[in-house]
Amino acid sequence: MAAKALHFDVGDYVVYPKHGVGRVIELQKQEIAGMQLELYVLRFEKERMTLRVPTNKAESVGMRKLSSDKTMREAMETLKGKPKVKRTMWSRRAQEYEAKINSGDLASIAEVVRDLFRADDQPEQSYSERQIFEGACSRLARELAAMEQIDEPAAQEKILDILRKAAAIYNKDKVPA
């Protein structure tokens, strides 16, 4: 299999697994340790962060273009599914959730959002659950916003709307004693 380097142009939105959606603002050439390196300069507005990624390392770090419409539709379908409640210790689940979020895989992020969502009539989340939920939801919303060219709050509302509808379906099964 021929290794074809990923190519991004200035202005492209990209997904960096650990940081989410950013934008290529510049292609730079720099000499580091006596070697000429070509770098993508990525800007993550929400975090007010700039990241430089060597062009030859973009693929190995998992950097990718925005998801396809098909992948986004599959992620939205995941949100409509029944939440999976695991009975393992929270610390272990939290690690699994963080790993899914940092994988950059849209379907995995959607699973975390679905599993940690709490409707208004459900028990409240712990602080750490809420932090992980908000992080995953924000990551999903930023990619949706970039794809649909809307702002992040509108994308987040779209996601929460799907989750509320799904919760209404799955929570009516539970009849209070």
Q: Which spans of ≥5 residues are poorly predicted at pLDDT below 50?
A: none
Question: What characterizes the major β-sheet?
Answer: 5 strands, antiparallel
- In angstroms, what separates the terminal alpha carbons? 60 Å
Tell me the domain tally: 2
Architecture per CATH nomenclature, i.e. the level-2 architecture of the largest domain: Up-down Bundle
Helix percentage: 40-55%
Give an overview in words:
Pfam families: CarD_C (PF21095), CarD_TRCF_RID (PF02559). InterPro entries: CarD-like/TRCF_RID, CarD-like/TRCF_RID_sf, CarD-like_C, CarD-like_regulator, CarD_C. This is CarD family transcriptional regulator. Residues 7-117 form the CarD-like/TRCF RNAP-interacting domain. The protein is an alpha+beta fold. It has 2 domains: 10-63, Thrombin, subunit H; 67-171, Methane Monooxygenase Hydroxylase, Chain G, domain 1, CATH 1.20.58.1290. Helix content is 45%, strand content 20%. It contains 5 helices and 5 strands. The chain has helices at 69-80, 90-103, 106-116, 127-148, 152-171; strands spanning 13-16, 20-32, 35-44, 49-54, 64-65. Strands 4-3-2-1-5 form a 5-stranded antiparallel sheet. It is elongated, with a radius of gyration of 19 Å.
Topology of this structure?
Elements lengths: L12 E4 L3 E13 L2 E10 L4 E6 L9 E2 L3 H12 L9 H14 L2 H11 L10 H22 L3 H20 L6
Helix pairs in contact: 1-3, 2-3, 2-4, 3-4, 4-5
Summarize the structure.
The chain is an alpha+beta fold and 177 residues long.
